Amino acid sequence: MVEYGNWVYRDENMKRAMLVLGLMFSFCLSFTQAQQIYIAGSDDNDAVYWHNGRRIVLPKTGSRASASAIAVSGSNIYITGIDGGDDSFDAVYWLNGRRIVLPQTGVRTWASGIIVTP
Known about the structure:
This protein is mainly β and about 120 residues long. The protein is built from no helices and ten strands.
């Protein structure tokens, strides 16, 4: 199923999986029961996700953003990542495309995973 990288997480039903491609870049691949495929990542300076191959750009307030993980629960899409510039960035998540900043104490904070429980 995967030609490059290493599986670092896979549930027993193959409904979600995370693939890490080296030390500097990762993306999360999620499968839903309806066989929909979601992939979170970045494209140039934008945080994006792909739904069944369709590219969707997430809103940002800084000059760059990146998405690092994705989870789907029902009709809700949760994506974690960063939004900011060269000197500082915020740990954020997007819920159905709406950007939400996570609490932080530093100027460079990163959110790299997400789990949604029933």
